[in-house]
Amino acid sequence: MRVHCKYFHIFRYLLSFFAGSSFIVKKSINIMLTPFLLPALLLTALAATAKSLTLKPECQPSCGGGVDVPYPFGIGPGCYRPGFEIKCIGNMTILGNSTSQYQVLSLAVTPRPEAKVMLPVAYRCYSPDDKVTHAYDGGVDFNSAGVYRISNTGNELIILGCNTLIFTAGGPSGRHRFAYYAGCVAYANDSKSVQDGACAGVGCCHVNIPPGLTDNSMRFAGGGVWSHANQTFCPCDFAFIAVKDYYNFSAADLDITTIGRKLPMLLDWAMRDNGRSSLTCAEAASMPEYTCVSDHSECVNSNNGPGYVCNCTGGYEGNPYLPNGCTNIDECARPRDQFPCNGVCDDTEGSYDCKCPPGYHSNGDPKENPCNPTFPLQARIAIGIGLCVFFLVVALLLAFIMHQKKKLAENFEMNGGNILKRVTGLTIFTEKELNKITQNNSECLGNGYFGKVYKGTLPDVNETVVAVKSFIKVDDERIEEFTEEVMIQLKMNHPNVLKLMGCCLQLDVPMLVYEFAANGSLSDILHINKRQKLSAELRLDIAIRSAKGLSYMHSQDIRHGDVKPDNILLNDKLIPKISDFGLSKLLNLGEKISQKVVGCEGYMDPVFRNTGLLTPKSDVYSFGVVLLELISRKQLVYGQSGSLVIEFRHIYETEQSGRSMFDEEIVTEENIMILEEMGKLAVKCLKEHQDGRPEMAEVAEQLVKLRKNTMEDDRSY
Fold it and tell me: Measured between alpha carbons, how far is 178 from 355 in angstroms, rounded to an integer?
């Protein structure tokens, strides 16, 4: 690799010499050579990474689950230092020296000695009369050998609750029972006051933790001012220590369903032999069990508790805890911002040399100063001709780039960018950012109402998965309508309404970025994936949450206009999200009559179909059809000529019961009342005249009441 690098440097300096001191020429040369240089740097960086020695040759390298186990950690007798045992349960990596099974996510020796583990969340849940129903203090026992400390720089303490004080403590006793305390207060007046993503005291608080914590046990303040009576919207308090910036608060996490969750936490480790209260590098160097055994290794005192760790000295990398574990770094194969060299680089043991090639000289060290060539006139003329051709190519390339930029700017303006860029809270992605999110539209999820839908990943800490949808082409007449629809969707903030997360306006057709629904649509789970069991309780929950979402939209003066199972999406927890409610709406703001009636015929309100009058009661009618599909698991048109709405109405009118059409999978004595009440409610929603139908809020209220009357748990929605 270094042979090629030498020719590369010679060629670069030939060009730079001919160009003299011209900044523009040097810049152009760098642009030309960059595409050739980057692949070489990537290949050499990968080769350097593969060199590291991390474990004893005779020892098992991992449990097979993707977690490398470097020494002093190890699996099996003779493969680890005391206190650093790792166990395998199947492919799962487990921390040894503990009475419980703590899963390990990663183990690091250098540059920072860390272990990332999964730990359960502490919780305490209360009944409406303020009695504790569930409790777990989060106590851990992973430190019996004394090697670990909870990282105070890599973790934070997070508290969830609506009227709670929780703190953790540790360290030896003195004036107080413990040496270290950390905690905070979380509160909320009601469920509406908490906001997703906001962890500043309302429903969620977080605080740094002190160094020296060896174990963890959460302490919940109880009684008095910390009463949880009649706090059904927030039945539980939670506390956990997790990696900083890993957790993103969600109001849904205040629910009792969060019990049992585990989150990653970082542990610092060090050599603390024989349980010494103070063990420094100076003390350890004379001991037979001293661990910095590799040549070119050095001892560093621990920065979290007593003890020491080992590092490779400058110019070396690897595992300092193994003989010959620290190996030479090939600085010449690393990026130049790490090891600068303006000439020809030659690797040496523990360092590197940088010299100007023959015919070049530097005013000082070539690591810091450029190499200036002394070159014949004939060569300058020859290179000059080549540069003229090069600059012509660059000029054409720049013209093409300017044309592309102009086109992007025109698309941005045509798609309402000058209006939407002033909207607070709206993320506007560039074309380049969107291509990175979708990996150039590599995974198509299907076809939406206006075009294809792609799967993507946001470049945030949580690597949030999203769905990217096409919209119709925007022209002068549609700019106002499009921008208003985007702003309407942006302000929709409800757990059962699909959230708009941003848009891209630089394309011919604007793209909208939504939260991702991992389980597809309700239609898929009802009629395509019929192998999946759907309990009566789950179907009722889907109906309740969908009704809540539509009721919320109606409270914001938004009419959906196309309610059907295809437009009710389900996330990874099967929680429904109302989708396609804005851009599929047929009316401009302030209108009541649509000049063009478009929608799915079987779900369409007869009044809307015949008159164009779209009201909230139109959505109620469509939701009634969805209820019938939930309880029957039959499609709108089934069999050879069966019409679900007509057949159910007929059977209900003649038998005063819809039992013969209920899905046999869930027809039990325990469920029959639920199904009958849902069927009765569906019939009310399907009234021919809008005045005879209930409001969507009433529908949601009746479904919630049905659940409370028939289910054992008192779930809040």
Answer: 60
Cα three-residue angle 605-607-613, rounded to 5 degrees: 100
Residue 28 pLDDT: 35
Q: Which residues are annotated as catalytic? A: 562
- Using CA atoms, how far apart are residues 490 and 427, in angstroms rounded to an integer? 10
Distance set, CA 565 to CA 583, 607, 623 (Å)? 17, 21, 9
Per the DSSP assignment, residues forming a β-bridge with 514 are: 467, 500
Q: Other C-beta atoms within 10 Å of 272: how many? A: 22
Q: Which of 30-34, 352-356, 509-513 has the lowest mean pLDDT?
A: 30-34
Closest by Cα among 322, 307, 284 to 146: 307
pTM, two decimal places: 0.47
Percent pLDDT > 70 in the chain is: 87
Domain 529-710 has CATH 1.10.510.10: yes
Please tell me the distance from the alpha carbon of residue 265 to that of residue 523, in angstroms, as a whole number: 39
- 200-207 mean pLDDT: 95
Going by C-beta distance under 8 Å and a sequence separation of 6 or more, which residues neighbour residue 427?
501, 502, 503, 513
Coil vs helix vs strand at 228: coil
For position 382, what pLDDT does the model report? 82
- Kindly report which listed range (274-278, 301-305, 413-417, 657-661) carries the lowest average pLDDT score: 274-278
Q: What's the rounded Cα separation, in Å, for the pair 488 and 561?
A: 15
Q: Reduce the secondary structure of 333-396 to three states and give it as a string.
A: HCCCCCCCCCCEEEEECCEEEEECCCCEEECCCCCCCCEEECCCHHHHHHHHHHHHHHHHHHHH
Cα 272 versus chain centre, distance: 37
Q: Which residues contact 528 (CB under 8 A, 6 or more apart)?
A: none
* Residues of each annotated binding site for ATP: 469
CA distance 345 to 333: 9
The model's pLDDT over 487-522, given as tens digits with 9 standing for 90+, comes to 888 888 999 999 999 999 999 999 999 999 999 999
Nearest CA to 438 among 420, 453, 448, 417? 453
CATH architecture of 417-515: 2-Layer Sandwich (3.30)
- CA–chain centroid gap for 537, Å, is 29
Q: How far apart are the first and last CA of the chain?
A: 63
Long-range contacts of 699-706 (CB under 8 A, 24+ apart): 699/547, 699/551, 699/620, 699/623, 700/544, 700/547, 700/548, 700/550, 700/551, 702/677, 703/540, 703/543, 703/544, 703/547, 703/678, 704/544, 706/540, 706/674, 706/677, 706/678
Using the structure block, give the residue that is written with the tokens 């009649």: 230
Domain extents for the chain? 2-50+332-375, 55-110, 114-262, 276-324, 417-515, 529-710
| 277 pLDDT tier (thresholds 50, 70, 90) | low
In the chain, % helix, strand, coil (3-state, to 5) comes to 35, 20, 45
Angle between helices 2-19 and 23-49 (to 10 degrees): 170
Average pLDDT estimate for 634-656 = 86
Split at pLDDT 50, 70, 90, the class of 273 is confident
- What's the CA gap between 619 and 711, in Å, rounded? 27
* Pair of tokens at residue 319: 């595992």
What are 597's two structure tokens?
A: 């009636």
DSSP three-state, residue 558: coil
